[in-house]
Every structure is written in structure tokens, then in C-alpha cells.
Amino acid sequence: MAKVKIQKKDIWIDMTPMSDVMTLLLCFFMLTSTFLTPEPIKVNAPNSVSEVKVPEGDVLNILVSPEGKIFLGTENKNYMKAMMDEMTDAFSLQLNPTQQKHFLEDAMVGAPMDKLAAYLSLEPEKMAEAIQKLGIPTDSINGKMSEFQMWVKAARDVNPDIKIAIKADSKTSYKAVKHMMSELQDMNENRYQLITNLKTASEE
User: Fold this and answer.
1) pTM, whole model, 2 decimals?
2) Sign of the dihedral through C-alpha 162, 46, 187, 80
3) N or C: which end of the chain has fewer CB within 10 A?
4) What are φ and ψ of residue 111, in 5° steps?
5) DSSP state letter for 140
């Protein structure tokens, strides 16, 4: 007896709805994602139980390395441009277009004013290496404000409502952090937020 041959049929699945959903998800994540600004140095903040979030906009971020070197900046490039103009005018420093471009592309300010032009003249790859050895000075100039205080003042001049957030490494000495905070207090900047990592239950 001959076997009944079952006719094979191709299975066709319409993938259009799937591609539509993937496109919508991709657009959603692209529009709602917040990209972190790369930091000039790696800082491991200490742990705490505080869950208060730092505001995302209009924040002057101050970074303190394990060696006590200070860097600062804000994600608003218009603010950074205005801060740069104020500081270069104060120090009678002329930056060419390439140096200004590198300044605005850099994540944070981290070079003394007397080395800023030379630092901004480097290639981006060498800038990332050179900034590790720099940092904004906190020593007063002729008994007046330090460069660090002048940068903070420039940020405050640009936006009087700007908030200050400090992120120090867990290995940064207490003396370095206290000195930086004293610089802020001398300017009557007594309100700022300390950035920490959230302590998990396993770490308690």
C-alpha cells in the first residue's frame, strides 16, 4: 500500500509588528536615557545609606581625586563657555579657537591658569593623560581668592541658582576635603551636596 505523502507548507510569520515594537523601544531608550559625563580621573565615592538624588541640571560638579587634586565643571556648555571667558579675562589669557574647542569638549576644568593654554594645545589623547598630574590650585593669589574660588565664583556669576555637588574618593584624605570645603565657606558657599554610592544590604 502506497504511503500518503503529506504536502509540506512553508510557514510565513509577519515580522512587521515585531520590528515596529523594537523601533519604538529603541526610540524610547534613546530619548529617556541620561548619558554620564566622563570624569577626568577615576573616583570611587564612599558608601552611604542616603537615597537623595543630585539634580540633573544646573549643577557645578566638584571632583576630588585620591591625591587631593580638584576638578570642576558643569554639563551645560554655555555655562562653561561663559566661565572660560570670565577666567581668561581675569588672567589676561588669550585662547585660540582650537584651544577653546578643546576646553568645551573636555569633561571638566582641571588645569592651573598658567598651564591652561599649554594643556589645551595637546591632542585629546594626551590631554587625558596630562590632566592626571594637574588640578585646580587652592592657594590664594596675593592674599585674595584662589583659582578654585575664582572658578566657583565664575559659575555663580553665570547662574546664581547653580547647585554645588562634591564627589571625593573614599581614599582622599580628610585634610584635603576639609581644605576644599573651607575654600567654599570663605565664599559663603555653605550649601552643597556630597555624592556617595548607595550602600547595599550585604555591605551593612
Assistant:
1) 0.71
2) negative
3) N
4) -125, 140
5) B
